[in-house]
Specification:
InterPro entries: Tocopherol_cyclase (IPR025893). This is Tocopherol cyclase. Pfam families: Tocopherol_cycl. One of its GO terms (molecular function) is tocopherol cyclase activity. The protein is built from three helices and 19 strands. The chain has one domain. It is mostly beta strands. Strands 6, 9, 10, 11, 12, 13, 14, 15, 16, 17, 18 and 19 form a twelve-stranded antiparallel sheet that branches. A seven-stranded antiparallel sheet has the order 1-2-3-4-5-7-8. Helix content is 4%, strand content 50%. The protein is globular. The two termini are 29 Å apart.
Length: 356
């Protein structure tokens, strides 16, 4: 997805040149090597400098927590659905400075978005916010238009599993007016449970707020009550309450905003399955709650006109009103005070779970 809610897709069923590092966020793929770069040399399988990447890769990409580089063409043959690309090609090179991951910015380590159970093949799919807020600098060539920028807001997440949820909605914003350092990520999803429970799904959700100054407010199904009311397109209402906080997100966009994107599905592979816009209007309100459970004065009341909004899966014939209901025994298990990262710290890399 690109400027003005544009879209480009380069599809390839060949995964042999895809690579990913086991214990840090780094991945990439080469669709086509640059002229003169093959000569018996294998495609790269580790991050390269910008110059080295473009010298070796005619079509492909690489991404880590601090760089993103790529060049691609519109090539949708083999992907489900009609052609959707709005430009013939795109290329980019960015350097990224992470500001907030998923957890307090002053903490010794970050948190698993779905809790410690993320290291097990329990949920379908798994989801991790890698960078709730960051700053990106570099250039982006979108068709015939070149953009150069410095300190632009950045966000990154990771999904893994067989396919995206059967239904979901998502709101992300780190560009609130007059509130540098404020970020919110919210989601509601109908996900599968794959550990011995085929065909069983559950509705889960969360609201995560990184406040200016580094404090992190995490409202998840095992510590909060979450509910949402989301239209097929154009309106998002998400609320969470626990003993310490209450959060409310209200977001809207114009009916004509957004574009249909392909996403991984278990039934049809990469297929048109969601709709996104970067031109959402978002209001975030956050209150502290007293010991008596009463709502106090607003801790935060912020707005933005550049929120990222999404709906996916479905079908979305009508609005979706639901409450998060995480099933047992997972709801109890995820609350166990296990530090999987700490427990695995002394293990050889080959014995560590991927991602740690």
């Amino acid at each position: 997805m690109g400027p003005n809610d544009g879209y480009i897709c380069q599809f390839s069923p060949d995964v042999r040149t895809f690579w990913a590092e086991r214990h840090r966020p780094a991945l990439g793929a080469t669709f086509k090597q640059a002229a003169g770069a093959s000569g018996g040399r294998a495609p790269p399988r580790a991050p390269l400098s910008e110059d080295a990447f473009f010298a070796q890769v005619a079509e492909g990409f690489q991404a880590t927590d601090t760089i993103q580089t790529g060049r691609m063409i519109a090539a949708e043959a083999g992907a489900a659905g009609p052609p959707l690309s709005t430009v013939p090609s795109a290329s980019w090179s960015l350097t990224i400075t992470p500001k907030a991951g998923w957890g307090a910015t002053s903490g010794p380590s970050q948190q698993a978005t779905a809790g410690w159970l993320s290291v097990l093949p329990v949920f379908e799919p798994h989801w991790q916010v890698l960078m709730a807020h960051g700053e990106a600098s570099g250039w982006f060539q979108w068709g015939g238009q070149r953009y150069e920028f410095s300190g632009a807001p950045a966000y990154a997440e990771k999904n893994w599993g067989g396919g995206f949820p059967s239904r979901w909605h998502w709101v992300q914003c780190n560009t609130f007016d007059g509130q540098p350092g404020l970020s919110v990520t919210a989601v509601g999803a109908r996900r599968g449970l794959v550990l011995g429970l085929p065909g069983v799904e559950e509705d889960v959700g969360l609201i995560g707020v990184h406040l200016p100054g580094g404090e992190f407010v995490e409202m998840v199904p095992w510590n909060s009550e979450l509910e949402w009311d989301v239209d097929p397109w154009g309106r998002w209402w998400i609320r969470a309450i626990n003993s310490s906080y209450e959060a409310l997100i209200e977001a809207t966009c114009e009916p004509e905003a957004g574009t249909v994107l392909r996403a991984p599905t278990t039934a049809s592979g990469l297929a048109p399955f969601c709709k996104d816009t970067f031109f959402g209007r978002c209001r975030l309100r956050l209150w502290r709650r007293s010991g008596a459970g009463k709502q106090g004065a607003p801790l935060m009341d912020a707005t933005s006109s550049t929120a990222a909004l999404e709906v996916g899966g479905g079908p979305w014939w009508s609005g979706w009103r639901a409450k998060a209901d995480m099933k047992e025994p997972f709801r109890s298990l995820v609350q166990l005070p296990l530090d999987v990262g700490g427990l695995s710290r002394g293990l050889p890399d080959l014995l560590k779970p991927p991602g740690l």
